[in-house]
Amino acid sequence: MSTVVADSHDAHDEHHDHKPTGIKRWLFTTNHKDIGTLYLWFSFAMFLLGGSMALVIRMELFQPGMQVVDPHFFNQMTTMHGVIMVFGAVMPAFTGLANWMIPLMIGAPDMALPRMNNWSFWILPFAFLILLSSMFMPGGGPAFGWTFYAPLSTTYSTDSTALFVFAMHIMGMSSIMGAINVIVTIMNMRAPGMTYMKMPLFVWTWFITAFLLIAVMPVLAGVVTMVLTDKYFGTSFFDAAGGGDPVLFQHLFWFFGHPEVYIMILPSFGIISAIIPAFARKPLFGYASMVYATASIAGLSFLVWAHHMFTTGMPTFASLFFMYMTMLIAVPTGVKVFNWVTTMWKGAMTFETPMLFALAFVVLFTIGGLSGIMLAITPVDYQYHDTYFVVAHFHYVLVSGAVFSIMAAAYYWLPKWSGVMYDEFLAKLHFWCSLVSVNILFFPMHFVGLAGMPRRYPDYALQFADINAIVSVGGFLFGFSQLIFLWVVIKAARKQGVPAPAKPWEGAEGLEWEVPSPAPYHTFDTPPKVS
Amino acid sequence: MKARLTSLLAGITALVSTPALMASESQINMTRGATDISNRVYELHMLVFYICLVIGLIVFAVMFWSILRHRKARGVTPAKFHDNLALEITWTVVPFLILIGMAVPATITLIKMDDTSDSDLTVLVTGSQWRWHYAYHDYDVEFQSNLATPRGQIYGRLPRGENYLLEVDRPLVIPTGKKVRFLITSDDVIHSWWVPAFAVKKDANPGYINEAWTRVNEPGIYRGVCAELCGQGHAFMPVVVIAKEPAEFEEWIRGEEQRLADQRAEEERLLGMSMSKDELMQMGENVYLTQCAACHQPNGRGIPGVFPSVVGQGLAVGDLDAHIDIIVHGSSGTAMQAYRNQLSMREIAAVITYQRNAWGNDTGDVVQAADIHNFIQGNR
Amino acid sequence: MSTKHDNSKYYVPDQSIWPIVGALALGLIAFGAAHYTIEWSNQEAGFGHWVLLAGLVVLTIMLVGWFGDQIRESRAGLYNAQLGRSYRQGMLWFIFSEVMFFLAFFGALFYARMIAVPWLGGAGNNEMTNQVLWPTFEAIWPLVTTPDGTETQAMGWLGLPLINTIILVISSVTLHFAHVGLEEGNRRKLKVWLVGTIALGLIFLSLQAYEYVIAYRDLGLTLQSGIYGNTFFLLTGFHGLHVTLGAILLIVMAFRVFAGHFDKDNQFAFAASAWYWHFVDVVWICLFVFVYIL
Ligand code: HEA
Ligand code: HEA
Ligand code: CUA
Ligand SMILES: [Cu+2]
């Protein structure tokens, strides 16, 4: 990839060398590193919040019968857990990483549109406050699943649905602005010599993710708007009595929703493609094919949405089309997996925490991907659909996929952010606890799913009891393991640790390792030259 | 080296053979089910599963090999290669071919499953919050099927039975060996009618009809559930299907036709007669608990903001005609459905009497089936 | 990549209060609008509209403050060509996201027309849908009788819609002339055509409002008249909102032009508003074809 020939950063001039202090620094900042930090903390908070809701779910499901919450509240927990994890934890974490790392990786002084950057971030706390406030309205908050299928979300939802809709609207605006910023930064702010095919893969994958975002978030805005008018203003987009169709909702939602799940995994691919070569001390295998594979995944993601809707009664030819397209995604994704494995082949590997998480990612994501292929087979999906088999699939790709990659990234770049090495012992403890418990948590879900346990059930038949108890135990273990992570991060943020050199990882490559650790408040005021 | 290889192979065989042990009727795998189609689906599932398992094992084996051998601790120097076109082409083409291998049987099975033509019997299945409603097309038979598990079991006051949450008051009955077509729809939100043993899962979309079919080989009781989130009672609207030999089925359905006709005649006859308040209250409580309590709650207080309370306020203590009206015709655009075709007039009368006198709603009103009849005829 | 690398001169603004004010504004608007909607539909009194109003006020303050800063910076010569490119690309991708927003509604229109309504009428694998559930329903488009029997009339394309189409197309041309005027340094030409464009935009909006009056008063075509009315009003309504926004942008540009802002090399705001206007025009043409004519 890229090496720096002449770099003349750190030529601090005039007012640029000291950072503003106090709360105003965070409220009014235009600095990509500050904004990145804000995003990352916000996402962590949301992860804990959404995780606590998952723990409520697991508490209720620990045994058959209704013990802890009532079904209505259970549905609110499921919904809020899904929404918060997807829009509050994973997406902002990636945007935070993009903010911190993209300018550093391409040798830019900041994001292209710094003020808009701040705006994108600060919308989020408001959006989530509004969303959470809906739970305190009479009748409670949204209880229709993160997929808010009509007419459950329209005619049959609680009064507070408008809060959900408008929170989604401004959340979407935030994402779109964030994505535009990423695209413009990448197109316009690369240092001299940083051609497209020299960009680190994290930059590439985010570039493509950003296009997905601006293509599908507006569709989400459109569909929530229709939910709003159907519920409150008498339209009948999703009501057959007026000529609409509830299935239309699902087409629109999944046209957004499927690309959305790739929005949550492509940046992970970029992270893993940075970490594996660094710790295998060997260049990434097949850089170009990685780029093309990412682009193909993104392209295909627009043609597979109805694989979430096989049981809605589509015409057979439509089911077949969506089945074939979905299966095709295995090809480019396979290319990525094979490239990672080949990168390790004949390398000289060491196993610091970022690498451990990356390796776990490769294995567990692949397991999740393979169950995705099983789900893609329409006739069999009739049996899997809306069971815990699906829940197992998506937690494998989301938790041990996306979330693990985010943790890998956090460990990998923490020295750059904080200037100190994180506590390797605690980090390894965090890894091993997470690895074991995440599998206790999600692997048995495959079994109950196959045996017929439907998702979004607050109560279930007796034959599922044993496995659910195991799953719940895994859930609590995994949840509490994350507190170790919190501890590690707080320690590093408070600069308790060995000072980190500019490049703490022997095999790491890229511009971000050319600046000191912690990265100065302003970097690359004068662009580095890349050859 | 050799030893390691053999132990690896042994490991793989062990892993591959475990799933085979989980054969059908297990608690950790899909059921083989009771129809030819469900067997095909099961086999397709196992086929895809084994393919994925093998792919996974190969990938992980290579990966763990490098983790073990190509580690810095062993003093290796990293290689420098980073591209190989032939390799890239191979691992693009080979997965593609594997996928075709899965797509072909999948396509054949799907086309069979979607072909609902030439059926011997048609049943209209309607989901509503939170029960199923079955109507046989060529017979004068239709009825509701409600969860039969008592609330006490759900809330842990009673010991849970064997078929906890998988039992209903009136199961659907179909003949074996016949192609039965299901027309699936809904009165309110989307539900999904799922019987794993038939490999039939179809969404019940309000305003549209989806079709599915099955041909059951063996008589038996087959249990299923609602598989699409439909609100609070989603977990509490199971499906039970009894498959009987055609002759037995024929006998059952004739008997059922007769019974329903008798019931209607009885209803007519009773229109002129009055029931005592106690009888009405008794019957009303039963109806209320099976039909209404899911929303308005057993204590009548509803869920604020979602389902109105019927205690001490509103129609249940207000205008009687409006009260009858909302139960007979429902309230359009809300979850409150019309009960005119769901309940008999006696039952409607009873539940109204119950609502107007229970929980301290001491209106003292007594409503008779005749009142409901008159209301529907527009004579009130 | 372009050869001009002037990161060192890339203007990275210092702290700014406007973004968080903007976030507050959006938060208030969302919270207020949601509560207002709920209160309105329950016909109860509440605070929603006040919060919404407060949000709009804060938003206006933010816009004035933020753009004010930007105009000052721009006129102080802090911006370079690279920043100009960033703004331009940002605007273009924003417009792209708007295209996708409209696509959702066009998608709903196509789905309703080509799939949902025919299915309700018994097409494809849906004979039973029609026979059992909607036996009297006939699938025709425009859907003047919905499955539940609500009747309405369709909006023809001759007359007002056609006139409006002509007006909007002309306004795109006049705006182009204004832009040419700016490029040539001909201020008079710029001013005349810009004001002309704004006038055309306002006429369009008035006629559109009048068309709604006709729809509601004479045709019985309302937001509640089923999927035809739904797609009609939401598509034309969101388009109308975008025209309104475009007109506001052009009016601001007009003030700036009269204040002597912009020249050949420094005209991002003007160009962006113009693109926006052309985009709105293209959307209308699609609308005219798919909503009115076909
Ligand atoms: C990060 C998120 C993420 C990712 C990456 C994926 C990836 C994939 N998903 Fe998943 N999915 C979700 C998140 C994700 N999914 C979520 C959240 C849901 C549920 C939504 C809801 O209903 O709430 C869902 C649901 C879902 C369904 C609907 C199930 C149902 O409701 O009935 C289907 C069906 O086709 C599916 C398929 C796939 C496929 C084929 C992939 C592929 O991209 C996987 C590709 C990867 C591999 C295949 C592994 C590596 C490849 C090789 C080693 C090469 C060789 C392999 C072969 C030849 C097979 N997913
Ligand atoms: C990235 C996304 C993401 C992540 C990370 C997770 C993480 C987890 N999820 Fe889930 N999940 C979804 C996305 C995600 N999920 C989605 C989209 C759905 C579908 C929703 C729907 O059906 O609509 C879903 C649904 C879902 C279900 C099915 C619910 C149902 O069908 O009714 C379950 C059930 O077990 C579950 C469990 C868990 C658990 C145990 C975790 C664990 O990983 C959580 C780990 C726990 C913690 C991180 C908690 C740590 C906190 C503490 C220990 C307390 C300390 C507190 C403070 C400091 C404040 N999730
Ligand atoms: Cu009915 Cu779920
Ligand atoms: Cu998908």
Description:
Chain A is built from 16 helices and 2 strands. Chain A is mostly helical. Chain A has a single domain (28-129, 160-189, 198-513), classed as Up-down Bundle (Cytochrome C Oxidase, Chain A), CATH 1.20.210.10. Chain A has a two-stranded antiparallel ribbon. Chain B folds into 3 domains: 2-18 and 116-150 and 161-265, Sandwich (Immunoglobulin-like); 36-113, Helix Hairpins; 271-378, Cytochrome Bc1 Complex, Chain D, domain 2 (Orthogonal Bundle). The longest helix of chain B has 34 residues, at 36-69. Chain B is 44% helix and 15% strand. Chain B has 380 residues and is α+β, with helices and mostly antiparallel strands. In chain B, helix 2 (36-69) packs antiparallel against helix 3. Helix content of chain C is 74%, strand content 0%. By secondary structure, chain C is mainly α. The longest helix of chain C has 40 residues, at 81-120. At the A-B interface, helix 3, helix 9, helix 10, helix 11 and helix 12 of A face helix 2, helix 3 and strand 7 of B. The structure holds heme-A (2 copies), dinuclear copper ion and copper (II) ion. One heme-A (HEA) sits between chains A (147, 261, 264-265, 307-308, 326, 329-330, 333-334, 337, 366, 369-370, 372-373, 375-376, 381, 384-385, 390, 393-394, 397-398, 401-402) and B (52, 55, 59, 95, 98-99).
Architecture blueprint of SSEs:
The complex is a heterotrimer of chains A (531), B (380) and C (294).
Chain A: E1 4-6, H1 22-28, H2 32-60, H3 71-106, H4 114-133, H5 161-188, H6 201-232, H7 246-263, H8 266-280, H9 287-300, H10 316-328, H11 330-344, H12 353-376, H13 378-384, H14 388-418, H15 424-451, H16 465-493, E2 529-530
Antiparallel strand pairs in A: 1-2
Helix pairs in contact in A: 2-3, 2-4, 2-16, 3-4, 3-5, 3-14, 4-5, 5-6, 6-7, 6-8, 6-9, 8-11, 8-12, 8-14, 9-11, 12-14, 12-15, 14-15, 15-16
Chain B: H1 2-21, H2 36-69, H3 85-114, E1 121-128, E2 131-136, E3 142-145, H4 151-154, E4 172-175, E5 180-186, E6 191-195, E7 200-204, E8 210-214, E9 220-226, E10 239-244, H5 246-271, H6 277-296, H7 320-329, H8 345-357, H9 369-377
Parallel strand pairs in B: 1-5, 4-10
Antiparallel strand pairs in B: 1-2, 2-3, 5-8, 6-7, 6-9, 9-10
Chain C: H1 18-42, H2 48-75, H3 81-120, H4 127-133, H5 160-184, H6 187-219, H7 226-258, H8 268-293
